[in-house]
Amino acid sequence: MGIFDIGTTWITFLITFIIVDFKGYWTHRWEHKINLFWNRHVVHHSSEEFNLACALRQSISTVFDYFTFLFLPAAILGVPLEVIAVVVPIHLFLQFWYHTRLIGKLGFLEKIIVTPSHHRVHHAINKEYLDKNLGQIFIFWDKLFGTFQEERSDVPCVYGLTRPARTWNPIRINFQHFFLMLRDGYYTRRWKDKWRIWWMPTGWRPPDMGQRFPVYGISETEPFNKYDVKASTGLKVWSWVQLFFNYGLLIYLFAFLSQLGWTSALIYGGFVLLSVNAFTELMDGNPNAMIFEMSKSMLVLGYIYIYGDWFMANKLLSPWFTELVIFYQVASVILVAYFSSDKIKTNPDGHLAR
After folding, report:
1. Are 177 and 45 in contact (CB under 8 A)?
2. Integer Cα distance of 10 and 8 in angstroms
3. DSSP calls for 316-334
4. Are 346 and 171 a contacting pair, CB within 8 Å?
5. Nearest CA-CA partner of 217 in 123, 125, 285, 345
6. What is the pLDDT along the chain (354 residues), one digit of tens a residue?
7. How far apart, in whole angstroms, are the C-alpha atoms of residue 124 and residue 121?
8. How far apart, in whole angstroms, are the C-alpha atoms of residue 139 and residue 266?
9. Are 326 and 301 in contact (CB under 8 A)?
10. Who contacts 208 (Cβ-Cβ below 8 Å, separation ≥6)?
11. Burial (Cβ within 10 Å: 0-12, 13-18, ≥19) of residue 80
């Protein structure tokens, strides 16, 4: 129960929207400024392009919200929980449209809301733009708290990370910054650094770690080359096939989640993760891609052999779905063996992000 009770009117929704956006600004700012929290946000910045697909790049660690206390003003005002539940997804959805290079500046709106121009600056790694324009809907938070930067015609935006991810594998991208901190914290000689690495500014590493475990980063003195693994047309086509097949597996999971139950759903999700890991390692040109593919396919085929179908597909859908999964796994092993022997360019080590 709040100190006040403002009821449920259009003013309630407006106040809640402003509170949610204020929380979003500070959450976003701390994610950019503190090493530990950067791991929640690094995936969103990992693309070296800037388009609507960037908005969909979200870290799995966003399921943990460390900043719920910023909803305190809403609690004090007595904002109903139902109002917050409605406003939060709308606020999130409204952040999608401005991830584009196709829209220029928008006149007087540039002074009020976050526009594509503002957000291009935010995603850029140019020293003039880094960690600027942290607002989510309203740009006046940045102007009020000193983090605003206008897009300059003489400084074209360069997108990505100052320590490029250098992989197509979403699992690697989700965890590489965290594992870098974990490794540095373990191996650094100073006990003080083992603790403060988590709370230092984003990208900070103990002084002795830079020498012992160097990490690739972009230098101001060298041109920026986007990550690009040379691949044949056949491999590109097969990558698209795998992408859409795994989408099909996810659609099946979501369609029959209630019938499968949580235990089966978790196992099913594990198979999907293994599949995504296997085919993106192939896209990266990893020489161990065949090992990942064989391991995944053997587990899937073993599951079907033991239980007789693919997660109740014979009952819930049709036996043909199980047969399709078997065909895909066998074809995948054969094709991955072929592409692996085709001497695809190997991705070098050292791709840890920020």
Report:
1. no
2. 7
3. HT-HHHHHHHHHHHHHHHH
4. no
5. 125
6. 556 666 678 889 999 999 999 999 999 999 999 999 998 899 999 999 999 999 999 888 777 777 888 888 888 888 888 999 999 999 999 999 999 999 999 999 999 999 999 999 999 999 999 999 999 999 999 999 999 999 999 999 999 999 999 999 999 999 999 999 999 999 999 999 999 999 999 989 999 998 888 888 887 646 678 898 888 999 999 999 999 999 999 999 999 999 999 999 999 999 999 999 999 999 999 988 999 999 999 999 999 999 999 999 999 999 999 999 999 999 999 999 999 876 544 444 444 333
7. 5
8. 40
9. yes
10. 188, 189, 190
11. middle
Residue with tokens 């693309």: 47
Place of tokens 């995504």: 276
- Between the alpha carbon of residue 244 and those of residues 239, 251, 276, the distances in Å are 9, 10, 11
Give the whole-angstrom CA distance, residue 161 versus residue 177. 11
Q: Which two tokens stand for residue 74?
A: 């809403």
| Dist. CA 113–CA 139, nearest whole Å | 5
* Alpha helix (H) residue ranges in 204-256: 207-212, 233-255
CA distance 240 to 245: 9
The Cα 31–Cα 289 span in angstroms is 33
Q: How far apart are the C-alpha atoms of 328 and 298, rounded to whole Å?
A: 12
* Exposed / middle / buried, residue 332 (Cβ in 10 Å: 0-12, 13-18, 19+): buried
Which residue matches tokens 């909803």? 71
Whole-angstrom Cα distance, residue 22 to residue 26?
7
| CA–CA distances in Å: residue 265 to residues 125, 249, 261, 311, 316 | 39, 12, 6, 9, 14
